[in-house]
Every structure is written in structure tokens, then in C-alpha cells.
Amino acid sequence: MDAPLAIRIARALRAALALVPLALPLVGAAPALAVAQGPYTLEVLVDGRPLAELYGHGRHYVEASAGREYSLRLTNNTGRRVGIAVSVDGLNSIDARTTTAQAGSKWILGPYESIVLDGWQTSSALARQFFFTTEKGSYGAWLGKTANLGVIAAVVFRERLPETDQPMLFRERGAPAAPESKAEGRGSSGAPPPPRPAPAEPGRAGARADADALPGGSQAPLSDQYAATGIGREVDHQIERVRFDAERSAAACLEIRYEYRPALVKLGLLPRVRPSDPLDRRERAHGFEPGFAPDPYRRDGGR
Length: 303
Prior knowledge:
Blueprint: E1 6-9, E2 30-31, E3 40-46, E4 49-50, E5 54-56, E6 59-63, E7 69-76, E8 82-88, E9 91-92, E10 106-109, E11 113-117, E12 119-121, E13 126-134, H1 139-143, E14 151-158, H2 180-183, E15 227-236, E16 239-241, E17 252-259, H3 261-266, H4 278-283
Parallel strand pairs: 1-10, 6-17
Antiparallel strand pairs: 1-16, 2-11, 3-4, 3-7, 5-6, 7-11, 7-13, 8-9, 8-10, 8-14, 12-13, 13-15, 14-17
């Protein structure tokens, strides 16, 4: 199996990449802000500004606006280099594949670094812009992968430390040394313990990666009422491949759901606004107002 692809936004022009194979990001990269909300953050940007987040049902939501382009800002507020697998509608933002986060291609962020992703990467120099559209008009529908529409996810993996950087272990002087099998995390039988289960994928629980079938073999119907992401105009976004040895377990799983306003109202995340009814206006009508008829020849109007 091929190793996951690690991607870094290229700082130099294509002609200079051979001279600077591990260049730091330039396009969309900036120092992380000190007011970040956690060690790693994911934000949805429209016109360069983050959308306000709503919280409910144990998840974070933002309001989508039909036809509007958007970008994603990833921030690493730690002193460790990390790799972040990013998916939009269940499709990896680098290669549009549907995989586990561990196996997926990742964006590489250095310590205290932030990058902005404008769209799906279609080559080493170009991406195609994210924009809000309907389920039927989505990139996922075009690819035939519609099980995870309406969700943006970022799974963070720290870089594995070299052996020389591993923390040293100490024991009390004079204490009996632990048997080698126990010191290495083995059980009394000497066999290694079973591996821990991989962390649950955000937005992927119970979903098949290769089909969007419902029980009984029927296919989930697509709707024009709910938001999804389309693949839009080309934008410049130069990248390069770098080596990255990720830890086995994810350090963080970030997830944002997005919906149009009617769906957010239906979910109880926004207040329901009663439309204006002409009958209400007519019911408030009266035959007379207090006072006399206005006199247009008087400066005060006759009142």
C-alpha cells in the first residue's frame, strides 16, 4: 500500500522547487494568532472572515450561503509539526479519495503555523474553489460519493518523534527491575497486547466508503434543499510532497457541519421567524384615528 501523501504548500515558484525541496508555505500561510481557541483550529472563511459557529446536538455548525465561495483555515498552535487530513463532504481535499484519516493524504503545518485552503487540489500548482451549492450540484454527486455531504472534517496527527527525542524513563533507586516483557508493555504471556482501535472517523460512523446505499439497496435521494460543496473556478495553489512520519493515533478530530438557514431553523439552532401575514395587518386595522381631519393650509397640519 502506498504511504499517505504529505503535502506542503510551496513557497517558491515551480522553477525553484528543486533548489528548495522543503520550502515553507507562502500562499495562504501566516503565523498563528495568540487568541486561538485550542491547540488546533478549523475555520470556514467567506470573504476572508470566519463564519460564526453554532453549537447543538453535540456538533458545531455554520450557515451556508448558496453560491458563495469559501475557504478553510487550519491553525497549529503547538510547537510540534503536524499532518492534517482534511475532507469536505467526505472527500479528501488533496485527492478527493474516501479513506480513513490515517491513510489519507495530509497537509503539513509547522509549529505555530496557519494555512488557508481554497479548494480541492487538482494538480501540483492548481486547486478548484470550494463553493456552497445543493446536493445535486455537488462535487460528491459528480463523483457518485454522497454519503457524507454537509460536513467538513480535519484530523490532526503529530509527527512521530525520533528515538533520541523520546522521553527518558526512570525508576526508584534500588527498586527491582521490571521483567523485560512487562517493561516493553507485554503481558504475562510475553505476547504484545492487542493494538488499540483506531479513533472513530468524524462524520464516517456507519458509512461505507464505496457506496451510498441505504438498507435494502436503495440509494439515498439527493435534495436541492440542503447544502453541499461544489468544485469551482481554478485558483493558484502550488504544493510539494514531503516526508512525514505520523503517530499512529490522532491528536485531534475537528468537524464542522454546514447547512442553509432553513435547515438550521429546522434543527433548532436558529429561531423560527414567522412570515408576515397580510391578514394580521388587516385584523389590526381601525376605522378611525383620534383627532380631527388635517388642514393642509395650516402650518401645523390642523392638529
